[in-house]
Design a protein that fits this description.
Elements lengths: L4 E6 L9 H18 L3 E4 L13 H10 L5 E8 L5 H14 L4 E6 L6 H6 L7 H16 L20 E5 L2 H10 L3 E3 L8 H11 L11 E9 L3 H7 L1 H11 L19 H10 L3 E4 L1 H15 L3 E5 L5 H20 L1
Parallel strand pairs: 1-2, 1-9, 2-3, 3-4, 4-5, 5-6, 6-7, 7-8, 7-9
Helix pairs in contact: 1-12, 3-5, 6-7, 9-10, 11-12
Length: about 325
């Protein structure tokens, strides 16, 4: 089992009884906390029309987090590129990289990050997404290149800056594209685990070296809920379970506090669906997290584990990332 980096995925969760200003302050607090613990990067995800997630203006929020931290890399996990003009994203991330040199990541996905009606409001054309997305990535690379200085359309700021691109995915489609373009690959195992193993296999076997990357680099995004005791961790995890129940029910309300008996809330069919989606979720005390992470890494051998933690109480969320960090460091000593 090789060593791996630890990183953070933050969806800027909105909680019942809290407002969005509170959400952003909690995100900054989490970034500061995980920076001190030595986490490698802090990514924010683009979602729209969801009362439970406040990271819709992803580039703006990245700037807020980067301005409040010093060393941790900050970026997108990801920008849903077909929702935007390639030029606008190049300018936005060129601005971020100019403000915070050497700390900005640009993770890219093709999904809408929302429902069909909102996707239409964003101006997406579903008929051309599969053709448009690879073309937009090439456009971004061109806008960031020094060679584009002679072009009639230039990204200023952005041109000539070293802004690493990352391919995001929740299916094997993205694995083929990441391999073809020679980009690092981040898989959304925190909500779409079904094709993760096959996606990694495709990516590793078909990877083509690029200017950015000479060998495959894999980030696995998983859920993590850690606490001092196993009982407390499982109790805290009922917030995560409720969030996925709400997805199944198309109920986008803010995140709920933990409950004593989750069986009072979900049906047997919902339980099966939620647990299937959360198969790569680390829940427990430090020793249990160690065993779960070790088992995961022995199976997938990734370069980086990115943790998303849906915990209602902010201090408990901070504690969870600290316990997961201790568990990972214990593995490194073996």
């Amino acid at each position: 089992m090789k060593n791996f980096e630890l990183s953070v995925l933050d969806l800027a969760p909105v909680k019942q009884g809290k407002n969005i200003h509170d959400t952003f302050q909690d995100s900054l607090s989490l970034a500061n906390h995980t920076e001190k613990l030595g986490y490698k990067r802090f990514w924010l995800a683009e979602h729209h029309n969801m009362a439970s997630i406040a990271s819709s203006a992803t580039s703006v929020l990245i700037g807020f987090i980067a301005n409040g931290t010093k060393t941790i890399r900050v970026g997108s996990g990801g920008i849903m590129l077909p929702n935007h003009s390639s030029l606008v994203i190049a300018e936005q991330f060129g601005t971020l990289e100019s403000l915070f040199p050497g700390r900005i990541d640009l993770g890219l996905g093709r999904a809408p990050g929302t429902d069909g009606l909102t996707a239409k409001a964003l101006g997406r054309n579903p008929m051309i997404i599969n053709e448009q997305f690879p073309r937009q990535i090439l456009e971004l690379q061109r806008y960031f290149s020094e060679e584009n200085s002679d072009a009639l359309v230039r990204a200023i700021p952005g041109e000539g800056l070293d802004i690493p691109l990352y391919m995001l995915g929740s299916s094997t489609d993205s694995a083929w594209l990441a391999a073809e373009l020679g980009l690092p690959y981040a898989f959304a195992g925190h909500f779409a685990p079904e094709q993760m193993e096959m996606a990694y296999k495709i990516y590793r076997e078909h990877f083509q070296p690029s200017k950015q990357l000479s060998a495959p680099y894999i980030i696995a995004c998983v859920n993590g809920v850690a606490a001092e005791t196993s009982e407390e961790a499982h109790w805290l995890s009922t917030t995560l379970y409720q969030a996925f129940i709400n997805i199944l029910r198309n109920d986008r309300k803010p995140f709920s506090p933990p409950v004593d008996d989750i069986d009072d809330i979900w049906s047997p069919m919902e339980k099966a669906g939620v647990l299937q989606k959360l198969r790569y979720t680390f829940i427990g005390n430090q020793s249990e997290i160690e065993e779960q992470v070790k088992s995961f890494q022995e199976k997938f051998n990734v370069d980086e584990i990115m943790v998303n933690s849906h915990i209602y109480d902010h201090q408990k969320r901070l504690d969870s990332y600290e316990i997961i960090n201790k568990a990972a460091k214990s593995l490194f000593k073996e």
